[in-house]
Amino acid sequence: xxxxxxxxVIRAPGVVVANPSDLTDPDGDQTYGTGVILGxxxxxxxVGLGTFYGVECEGLGEYSDxxxxxxxxxxxxFLRGWDKDAVEQTLAGGYALGATTxxxxxxxxxxxxxxxxxxxxxxxxxxxxxDTIYHPALIIRRGIPDFADxxxxxxxxxxxxxxxxxVECLRNGSGKILDLGMLEDLTL
Length: 188
Description:
By secondary structure, this protein is mainly beta. It contains 1 helix and 13 strands, in the order E-E-E-E-E-E-E-H-E-E-E-E-E-E. It has one helix at residues 84-90, and strands at 9-10, 14-18, 36-41, 44-48, 53-57, 62-67, 73-80, 95-97, 104-106, 123-129, 137-147, 162-169, 178-181.
């Protein structure tokens, strides 16, 4: 039986940036170089989906070894609001700007085709907490964003409108999947 690991949830408000080019943010605008701010979030959940594989010894009828789990991770987060950049970067297949308001319009199925590779939508994602002294940052080296399974866009007064996103984490060209640590210790 597995139990949820509370340490995998970063319970700190922060900003989510697509394709950052600099982790120092010298001008303080939270774009981290030439990145695109997707929006603010209150918490980020890093979920490891790897499963260890038990090797059973037939002579003893018990496990004699455990093989390391695979390296599959997803990151769940809630991007607050209906921000143009967030919709464009994460729901790119059906994105357009409204002719009158200039606000984002999302149409399904857009240009996505079932069974087609999603690698063209992959991006580097950075979660930078507002308090970089006490809370860790997260870099997803190559992530494919989409709605979380069962996600809802709630059009109600008592629930905030926003994008409930899941990012599937993949290896980049250097073989890295993600980095979690204090922002000053991380590199792009």
